[in-house]
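re: ur question from yesterday

yeah so i grabbed the chain u mentioned. its 347 aa long if i counted rite. heres the sequnce exactly as i have it in my notes:
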Amino acid sequence: MDVTVAEFIRRTVLKVPRSHIPALLQAWGFLPAARLQALDVRPLKEAIAEAVVQLCQENSASIKEAAVLDIVYNHTFQNKRVWTVYQMTKATGGETDIFDFTAFKRKFKRRIQSSLINVTINFKEFEDNAIWIRIAWGTSYTKPNQYKATYVVYHSQTPYAFISKSINRSNLPLLCQALIVASNYGDIREMELRSHCLDSLKDIVFKRYSQTFQTHHPKPLQERNVAPENVDPRLIQEDKSEKERIQRVNQEVFGDGPQPKLEFAQYKLETMFKSSPKMVNVSERESFRCLVKFSSPHLLEALKSLAPAGMADAPLSPLLTCIPHKARNYFKIKERKGVLAAGLVSP
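ran it thru and got these structure tokens back, copy pasting raw so excuse formatting
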């Protein structure tokens, strides 16, 4: 076994929490079950890693097996990476083909390797029909960097791919070309969806997240200056009723269950305004564009907590509550008669 392969396996094992090492090695499926059962995980992790490397040497592990181990690690601890959603579209008149995993792998590899020789590509299919693709990029003069690989998670028969980029983004166009060629699509574009939680992104784009659309308008909260003593019982009842209303409206808007863990969202703002009072025609008006970004460790839960905390009126603006639905498309906001209204950009 090559010394670089041994070092890569050793470093991968060192990243795994001690309690997860047996299960991860079993999921890898490369080492014999009998040898895994005899593996002692009580010593220091450095000793465990060396023991695993010794087993791999006895079984002549190659970079292919080491890459699959890395795939299993990232599948187990997928929240350690930042994932971005990409949406593919069929060409005009295109029909959905029956998915062939072997043909997919062949087309994907051929497209990338036709432009770049020094690259390693590995695949692993998991139980949820997710195909995990690992690409370690090199250059015309250097070998592939196994420590800065790009990951793609693709569900067959769907137009969505989830990509966790490496530091070098110069190969992203080539990766996107390989995806649309292998999956028989015509185009691909990045969506405004990023998160560490891959499962939450899947819940949103696969519409596994249930949320009620807002059908009523906000009612402004009335300001009240109440003395701390001799409070009127009717005001206490009114405050209690208002809190119950906020809780009810919040439940109608966000639903009962936990929110998908979304960490980033952004709106593209485009408005037309008159730079001079004499301008009447729309063609004479100037365009103003900006990008509004939201970020939070748990964006949707943060929005959900605004009204109960008294930081916003209930219900929230549809521009915020519609994020899980609108995120499947691009955001565009137009100004019409002084009112900002959300609209989707056509594909």
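noticed a couple things. The first strand starts at residue 83 and ends at 89. also The CA atoms of residues 94 and 185 lie 8 Å apart.
anyway ttyl
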